[in-house]
Amino acid sequence: MARAEVVRHYGGVSAEDRRAERRRKLLDAARELWGASGAAEVTVRGVCARAGLTPRYFYEQFDNRDGLLLAVADEVRDQLAVTLVVASESEPGDIWAKLDAALTAFLEVVASDPQVHRILTSDPSSVPGLAQQQITATGRIVDLVRDNAARLLDRVPPEDELRRNALFAVGGVNGLIADWLPHRTESPAELAATATRLCRAVARGIDRA
What we know:
Number of strands: 2
Order of helices and strands: HEEHHHHHHHHH
Low-confidence stretches: 1-7
Helix content: over 70%
Oligomer: single chain
Radius of gyration: 21 Å
Largest sheet: 2 strands, antiparallel
Strand order of the largest sheet: 1-2
Shape: elongated
Strand content: under 5%
Structural class: mainly alpha
């Protein structure tokens, strides 16, 4: 029994916590390498060297390099999703003021964090599975917009029409952001205001149809 306890704990830290700490180090190292030099520069050997771990611990957490990169991309999207939600909930105005605040906060993070910027603008074909991951993430946002349409619209259209309009609005905002990222000729607040105005126009068009 005493030996089993030693296996589970080392220096007061449980085996589970040590695994979590190693995973965190690997994710942070991969994010730093990807954010600094691009996905192509992320290798198992390089990540392990930066994290101060051996490959044994890498494969304890991930099947391969691509699995690690997908986990990093998921974390970046989760970070941005939290940013959107917090900014929206902190804004006391109407739904459009909340959208404007959320988009402004989102764009400020992207503009101020080079790692996030590079990861978001990476070629999806550079990481197997990344394109599908992006499609899935966009689909969740489209579903969220569709599900909350009743808060915005006087006339809620049929389901298929509502989804197409939600897809159009989300795709349009994504297109604006993709066009803005390389040059950033507008401030985050200016681009957010443009995106909000165009989303309102889509909503007005649905109400008048």
